[in-house]
């Protein structure tokens, strides 16, 4: 009896682990899709700025360095865009 109960519990645990793995995989895909979308948007913005401001390409490294020094990228939020 105990062996059957143990096997049933083990089977349930295996099913839970498989469900968690699927959730993790789906989460990874969602994060990757979000990152890809951000990359596309950044490239579009950079492309526009290069056309609108011809000196943008030359000034961008200094701007990026300044912003990186002023803000920890991990803490940048919508509220900090004021």
Mean pLDDT value: 88
Gyration radius over CA? 24 Å
Largest sheet: none
**What is the structural class?**
mainly alpha
Q: Could you say which overall geometry the principal axes of the C-alpha atoms support?
A: elongated
Helical proportion? over 70%
Number of strands: 0
| Tally of structural domains | 1
Note the topology.
Elements: H1 2-52, H2 56-70
Would you write up a description of this structure?
Helix content is 80%, strand content 0%. The chain is mainly alpha-helical. The protein has one domain. It starts with a helix and ends in a 12-residue tail after the last helix. The model has no long low-confidence stretch (mean pLDDT 88).
Summarize the structure in short:
This protein is mostly helical and 82 residues long. It is built from 2 helices and no strands.
Features:
0% strand; mainly alpha; 82 residues; 2 helices; single chain
């Amino acid at each position: 009896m105990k062996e059957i109960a143990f096997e049933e519990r083990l089977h349930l645990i295996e099913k839970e682990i498989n469900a968690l793995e699927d959730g993790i995989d789906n989460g990874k895909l969602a994060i990757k899709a979000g990152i890809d979308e951000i990359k596309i948007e950044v490239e579009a913005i950079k492309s526009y700025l290069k056309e609108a401001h011809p000196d943008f390409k030359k000034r961008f490294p200094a701007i990026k360095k300044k912003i990186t020094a002023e803000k920890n990228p991990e803490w940048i939020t919508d509220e900090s865009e004021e």
